[in-house]
Structure formats: structure tokens, C-alpha cells
Amino acid sequence: MKEGEENMEPVKVGLLGLGTVGGGTINLLQENAEEIMRRAGRGIEVIHACARDLNKPRICDTEGISLSTDPNEVVDNPDVDVILELIGGEGMARDVMLRAIENGKHIVTANKALIAKHGNEIFAAAEARGVIVAFEAAVAGGIPIIKGLREGLAANRIEWLAGIINGTGNFILTEMRDEDRDFADVLAEAQRLGYAEADPTFDVEGIDAAHKLAIMASIAFGMPLKFDRVYTEGITHVTRDDVTFAEELGYRIKHLGIARRTWNGIELRVHPTLIPERQLIANVDGVMNAVVVKGNMVGPTLYYGAGAGAEPTASAVVADLIDVVRALSCAPESRVPHLGVHPHALADESILAMDEVETAYYLRMQVVDRPGVLADLTRTFADLEISIEAVVQKEPPPGESLVTIILLTRTVQERQMVKAMEMLGKMDAIFGDVTRIRLEYLQ
Ligand SMILES: NC(=O)c1ccc[n+]([C@@H]2O[C@H](COP(=O)([O-])OP(=O)(O)OC[C@H]3O[C@@H](n4cnc5c(N)ncnc54)[C@H](O)[C@@H]3O)[C@@H](O)[C@H]2O)c1
Ligand SMILES: N[C@@H](CCO)C(=O)O
Ligand code: NA
């Protein structure tokens, strides 16, 4: 080998997981090999991979790759330079990731659950060992939002961000609106297409979005990961009626993750949200994701693209892999810090309890059709100093006596709205539960 040619050896990769993302990654590395070589400056070769069941049919060709069922065999392989962790979960994945770090391997992962919950420990271990843990694929799949926040917006103080960050949930809400389809049926389709998590309650109950929000918020505000402080509400209680009424009033219902810096702390919340239909993000449909980030200098910026699926997610995995290859020759202290600010500069920001958060509301209730009911309702809100933005009364279908009232409030502290809900619960003119969905203008 001539002098200067040492680094032209292909980088050797160990791949954990041969499912949707792992299979997509092998395919992408094969299909775009030439382009990747031009960008990374070196070839990239998967030499060892693992999966639970080696006889399962795959979306990729594993010829020439050593295969194991035990991830530890891959992370202990002395020839492997970089590990791609694409098995998911928190138990085995955490153990093998820490073992890989101990072995001095760089890691690329798509595992948002692991980073959101154990990222502080994992990054500390990686920094101590001088290795990189890259996680672009973990948030909004193929959209380069980690790079955008951590590098593209590095000059800004981030004021807030809001995102549609679960493709499965957005697919369900979109199909409910456009196709009048059954919730379970749409979820089954998302699972078939490889979008849903191994446990799909993570998608519909907002846990997956909370993982991703926790990661983005840490980078946006330069603070350690605080997944357990994210208020999390899913989409299972959103009805087709709410979707339709919201549209009639000029809003769309989206499942948003919101992180906002306020004068007294940081809001971290995931919940269904009405947003004005004129907002670009209100028109992000199907499995697509989008994140709006407001920086104090740049203003609002929008990132849009596919948040799930084999190829889009592999796009982020391989982009990280190329970054790692480029960084191999640079000193650890010159690398982009894991959370965008240097570990010693991470600030322990206070996170607001949900009852301190301020937002507007959409309320829907069924009331007895008799004089004075609307007056009682508005008096209740006036007593709690909650201003009403709009009230709409729907005529009952023929033969029915209950009237549907939709009420939009102005911005109010959650604590006041909880009191209002208690008072509405005691009014005998209201039948059944009052539906409450938060409303944001995103300005
Ligand atoms: N599917 C997507 O669109 C998508 C998008 C972004 C991020 N992710 C994340 O990527 C990761 C992988 O997701 P996926 O959809 O590819 O999952 P998958 O279920 O399709 O594939 C998982 C693979 O890991 C292997 N595996 C799991 N546990 C193992 C163990 N203990 N030992 C050996 N092999 C094991 C399985 O055999 C399988 O090959 C998850 O963290 C997921 O959250 C997925
Ligand atoms: N289950 C996730 C995969 C991407 O993280 C989603 O539907 O968005
Ligand atoms: Na991403």
C-alpha cells in the first residue's frame, strides 16, 4: 500500500437488525454505493449482521455478510468499525450499545425510545470513550431535523418547535378525514407498510412522538434529555365528528409535539391539536412528517418529508454513517457535540407542569335544547375569566333533542380549563363527556 492510502480501506460496518430499517439500509448502501463513496471518501462495507430469525424472508440481499442471531457477536467483532443499531427496544439495545461503546465502536441508531430514555447515560459513555452516537433516523425518519437543529440553526436561540412526528398517527388522522375509514383498519395498514412501532400503542398513544420531542427539545434548548417530563396524550379519543367540526371552523386536527421556551420554563407536550388550516403544517398528510422551528434570528423554518418507511429511514442512517466516516480522522473534541452544545454547557432548564401551560381550546358537548343553557355556559367561563372566541350550535338531527355546542376559547392557563371542566361536569343540561382538544396558532 502506498503512503497516504491507508484510509482508503472500506469502513467496516456491523448491522444489528435486518427488518424494515436494517434491510432498507443494506439496499441503499448497495444501490447508491458510488454516490456514497464520492461523499464519504471511502467505501462502506457491511461485514457482519444479526437478526432474531436468520431464515425469515428479507427485503435485502445478505450474501457475503456474516450472520448471527446474537448482537453481542457483532459488537465484539474486532474488524467492525461502526455499529448500526436497528433492532429497537430498550433492554437488549441499551446493553449492546454500551458494550459497543466500551469496545470503541462508533454507533448509528434509529432508536428514539433508547435515546430519549437512556441518551444521557449513552452520550456520557460515548464521550468518555471518544466515540460518536449518531441518531438522525430516530427523529422524523428521513428529514434531516437533527442536523437542521444542531448545525443549521446553531446561531439561534430557539423559541419553540412544533412537529407532526409520528407518521402512523398522521396517516390515521388523514384517512379518518379523507376516507372515513375505521381507526383499527388504518392502523393495520400502517403496520403492513412497516411504519408502525413493534408496539403500535407507542404510535397512537403519543409515546413515540414524546420520545422524538424529548430529543429535539434537548437539542433546541441545550439541556439533558427529559423524556419523563413530556406531557403525552394520544389520538384514540379524536372522533370523526371533531375532525369535521374543526374543518368547518377553518382548522385541522394534527397530533403535535410542542416544545416552547416561556418566561417561566419550558413546555414539553404531545397531544391532538387544532391548527389553522392556512398553516403549511396543517396540510401535511398521510405518513409525512413536518417540524416547524422558530429561531430568534431566522424566524420560523419548516422541515418536511417522510418520517417512516424503509428507504427514508435508511437515508438518515446512511447520512449519519457518512458523517461518522468523515469524522473518523478528526479529534473527538472537534466533533459536533451529541446534543449540539458542549456537555459541560448543558443547562438544567425547568420544565413546566401541564397545569401551568397556556393554550386555547376547542370544546364539544351535547346539551339539552332549552332557553338559558348557552347563557349558563358562558357565565361559567366568564366566572373563570376564560374568554370565548366562538360558539357554534349544531341543529339536532330530526327526532333528536340534544344539541351539539362547539366552543373555542382564547388562550387560557390549563389550570383554569381543568376548573371549567369540573364545573361543566356538574351542569345537568350537559349530556355525556365534554370533549376538549387544545388549539394552537403556531405564531
Ligand atoms: N420502521 C420505520 O419506519 C422506522 C423509522 C424510524 C425509526 N425506526 C426505528 O428503527 C428501529 C428498527 O425498526 P424496524 O421497523 O426496522 O423494526 P423491525 O421489527 O422491522 O426489525 C427489527 C430487526 O431487529 C432484529 N432484532 C430485534 N431484537 C433482536 C435481538 N434481541 N437479537 C437479534 N436481533 C434482533 C429483528 O430480528 C429484526 O430483524 C426501531 O428502533 C424503530 O423505532 C423505524
Ligand atoms: N412508528 C414511527 C416510525 C418512525 O419513527 C412512525 O410512525 O412515525
Ligand atoms: Na431525521
Automatic annotation (TrEMBL):
The active site is at 212 (proton donor). The keyword NAD applies. One of its GO terms (biological process) is threonine biosynthetic process. InterPro entries: ACT-like_dom_sf, ACT_dom, Asp/hSer_DH_NAD-bd, HDH, HDH_cat, HDH_CS, NAD(P)-bd_dom_sf. It comes from the Bacteria. Residues 362-439 form the ACT domain. NADP(+) binds at residues 16-23. L-homoserine binds at residue 197. It is an enzyme of class 1 (oxidoreductase). Pathway: Amino-acid biosynthesis; L-threonine biosynthesis; L-threonine from L-aspartate: step 3/5; Amino-acid biosynthesis; L-methionine biosynthesis via de novo pathway; L-homoserine from L-aspartate: step 3/3. The keyword NAD applies. Keywords: Amino-acid biosynthesis, Metal-binding, Methionine biosynthesis, NAD, NADP, Oxidoreductase, Threonine biosynthesis. Its EC number is 1.1.1.3. This is Homoserine dehydrogenase. It comes from Thiohalomonas denitrificans. The lineage of its organism: Bacteria, Pseudomonadati, Pseudomonadota, Gammaproteobacteria, Thiohalomonadales.
